[in-house]
Amino acid sequence: MSNENNESEYYDAMLDLLEWIWGEGYMAPGGEGNVDLLVGSLDIRGKKVLDVGSGLGGPAFVLAGKYGAQVTGTDLELHLIARANSRARELGLDDQVEFRQVEAGPMEFGDGTFDLVVSSGAITQTADKLGIFSEICRVLKPGGAISCYDWMKSDGEYSKDMLRWFELEGLTYAMETLEAHGEILAEAGFIEIELEDASVWYRRECRREYELLSGDGYREVVRLIGKDEADHLIESWKAMARLCENGEMRQGYCRARKPQAGT
């Protein structure tokens, strides 16, 4: 994930914990399997891919190492970029992957630069979704694709339970419904829009994660972030599991294409 201000919402011990929960290089659930779902049937060998909100670089390394893409990852937080670039060198992927710190707002890339843009767990923290989807459309080549996975909400205003979870998390969220994502993608100029609700899958995962954190994994959580932080995190995870189970918090995939030139 990435935030819209430049104050870090992730400290090193918390990053280590997220990697312990979700896998090395990941700041959102699903690991390599989530990247496979983002790519789908696309052949991206040798193609240029942009990972928006690249975090610690896990998805980018799969896109490069498994799928053979040339990947540029962007994030707002410099220490995430530094850790990701260091890991790229360790993996011997620094000739295929680069990570750049960016500012919120218009992207620094030229029109038609990328064949594919992916994002996992980052756009949920971006309030101006039309702005970011429009920029993604601009930097995609004609016929290029966007594929993203994100946390979303159900219809209606945030409940007290959701607002309490935001408070517990201490992170910046700007959730929309899955259906609204589709409408915004269309407004940004995309076609062939596909929406896939993944809420049932993460509902199970989130409960499993909570049981791990509060049960067999508790000692490791305390070791990584201390008892007070561990207890706070577990309370937050319990609240998230409840929101997933009552259907207020949803997860989903959005896939779409930029029209070919002249269409």
Keywords:
263 residues, alpha/beta, Rossmann fold, 7-stranded mixed beta sheet, 10 helices, 7 strands, globular, disordered N terminus
Largest sheet composition: 7 strands, mixed
Tally of helical segments:
10
CATH homology superfamily name of the domain at 21-152 and 172-198 and 249-257: Vaccinia Virus protein VP39
Q: In which range does the helix fraction lie?
A: 40-55%
Beta content comes to 15-25%
Through-space gap between termini: 34 Å
Fold-level CATH name of the domain at 21-152 and 172-198 and 249-257: Rossmann fold
CATH architecture of the domain at 21-152 and 172-198 and 249-257: 3-Layer(aba) Sandwich
Q: Layout of helices and strands, plus pairs?
A:
Elements: H1 12-22, H2 31-39, E1 48-52, H3 58-65, E2 70-75, H4 78-91, E3 97-101, E4 114-120, H5 129-139, E5 140-153, H6 160-169, H7 178-187, E6 191-197, H8 199-214, H9 218-225, H10 227-245, E7 249-257
Parallel strand pairs: 1-2, 1-4, 2-3, 4-5
Antiparallel strand pairs: 5-7, 6-7
Summarize the structure.
With 263 residues, this protein is of the alpha/beta class.
Structure description:
With 263 residues, the protein is an alpha/beta fold. 44% of the residues lie in helices and 20% in strands. The protein has 10 helices and 7 strands. α8 (199-214) runs antiparallel to α10 (227-245). β4, α5 (129-139) and β5 (140-153) form a beta-alpha-beta unit.
